[in-house]
Amino acid sequence: MARRFDIEIGGRVARVVVERVGGRYRIERDGRTEWADAVPVDERTLSLVIDGDRRESHEVGFLEARERGELEIYLRTGVIHARIDGRAPQGGTGGGETRPAARGGPARVTTPMPGRVVRVLAAAGDRVLARQGLVVVEAMKMQNELRAPRDGVVAEIPVREGMTVEAGRVVAVLE
C-alpha cells in the first residue's frame, strides 16, 4: 500500500509517495521514481541505498515527534528539520540549520548484522557528538562504522576488538 506525504524542508513542499514492493521501496518525488533499500543500523538510524539517476548511499538518523508533524533527519552534514503534511513544528525555525540531537534516556547502539569488532573508537567516559564513530564491525567483508545517534557521554562499550557479535548486540550505550 502506497503512503503519500507532503514534506516541507526549508520552505519547499514536496509530495512524496512511498510504497514497499517486495524487499525494496519505490519512492516517487518531483515527478521521478527511485528505488531504495533500507537496512536498520540501530533504533534511530537507517542505511539507505538509493538507485536513481546515480546510485547513492546514505546513513540517515532520525527523531520523530508525530504529534507535531516534525521530523529531524540526521545526516553527516548536519540536521534537516522537516514538516510532515504541512503541520508546523513547535518552537522550530524549519530550514536546514544544524543543532545537537535531542536528549533522552540512554541510547543503545546495536549491530545491524552479525560480524566481528575490528576497531573500538571510543571509551567509557568519552564525550561524543552525534554521528561520531564508536565501533567498527566487519560483516561480509565490509566494515560498518556504528555511530552515536546523538551528542552524549559514552556510558559503556561492552565489546572489544576481535570479538564476534550477533545481530542486535549492544556495542555502545550513551547517556
Q: Could you describe the 3D structure shown?
A:
It is a single chain. With 175 residues, the protein is mainly beta. It has two domains: 3-84; 107-174, RNA polymerase II/Efflux pump adaptor protein, barrel-sandwich hybrid domain (OB fold (Dihydrolipoamide Acetyltransferase, E2P)). The chain has strands spanning 3-9, 12-21, 24-29, 32-42, 45-51, 55-65, 70-75, 78-84, 107-110, 115-120, 127-128, 133-139, 142-147, 152-156, 164-165, 170-174. The chain has an eight-stranded antiparallel β-barrel. The protein has a four-stranded antiparallel β-sheet with strand order 9-16-14-11, with no helix packed on it. Strand 3 and strand 4 form a beta hairpin. The chain is globular and about 50 Å long. The relative contact order is 0.15. Mean pLDDT is 76; it is low at 86-103.
Distance linking N and C termini: 38 Å
Tally the helices: 0
Q: Write down the overall geometry.
A: globular
Structural class per helix/strand content? mainly beta
Number of strands: 16
Summarize the structure.
The chain has 175 residues and is mainly β. The chain contains no helices and 16 strands.
Keywords:
175 residues; OB fold (Dihydrolipoamide Acetyltransferase, E2P); eight-stranded antiparallel barrel; 16 strands; globular
Structural topology:
Elements: E1 3-9, E2 12-21, E3 24-29, E4 32-42, E5 45-51, E6 55-65, E7 70-75, E8 78-84, E9 107-110, E10 115-120, E11 127-128, E12 133-139, E13 142-147, E14 152-156, E15 164-165, E16 170-174
Antiparallel strand pairs: 1-2, 1-8, 2-3, 3-4, 4-5, 5-6, 6-7, 7-8, 9-16, 10-12, 10-15, 11-14, 12-13, 14-16
